[in-house]
Amino acid sequence: MFELIGQMLSYPFLVRALIVGVLVSLCAALLGVTLVLKRYSMIGDGLSHVGFGALAIAAALGTAPLAVCIPVVSLAAVLLLRLSESARVKGDAAIALISSGSLAVGVLVVSLAGGMNTDVNNYMFGSILSLSRGDTVLSVALAVIVLLLYLLFFNRLFAVTFDETFARATGTKAGFYNLLVALLTAVTVVLGMRMMGALLISSLIIFPALSAMRVCRTFRRTAVTAAVLSVVCFLVGTVASFAWELPTGATVVAVNILAFAVCAVSGIVKRKG
Asked: Of 180, 230, 172, whose CA–CA distance to 28 is shortest?
């Protein structure tokens, strides 16, 4: 086991992937708790489709993917928040509206640009080989900013998550914190698309949060448990994918599914006990 890990760490691209993966897993899990409790868990899936459309355009134009994806997905997150607050378009419909439209635009752009190439394919399904040194530095910097902002406003986010009406009554700027969550989620989704792919990144947001909720009852404990589970599942999935030559993103999701099953059974046993 230790020999296998030592072999993994001898590859610079794997070290970069592990560093970024751990940070993105932390961000996704912490934000996931808030999103799931606010019944907004599919926002990650919706924004990943927007990201696919943005990267398809970036690939067609020959520009840096992150430079295009981050502002476009952030703008989509803001638009999604505004639509969900509308009386005419609810959260799930807004997500379906934006995600399906963005996916269609991405497919059309890819088709017009000459078909699927390696870069676009990596973003759809994930590739642990796709992280360059420059991407790693930018990803680490952005992930650290996301974590710091989340920890800094933790108490406010807790208030807005559980009772937004009461939070507004006490003077909390709920609109600002909802916007903050949407923007942080957008950045996390874009960073995670490199390894997990647009089709699987939402699993990093949903599974750890749901698993933690099976065994925890307080917001703080749930957030900490989700963060730990997310990091452990990512590391186990990455090691397993390296050992058995499996797709990294799919392997990480499979480990998360197993963790959810274990937590679900533990929760049932705990309640009956």
From this structure: 230
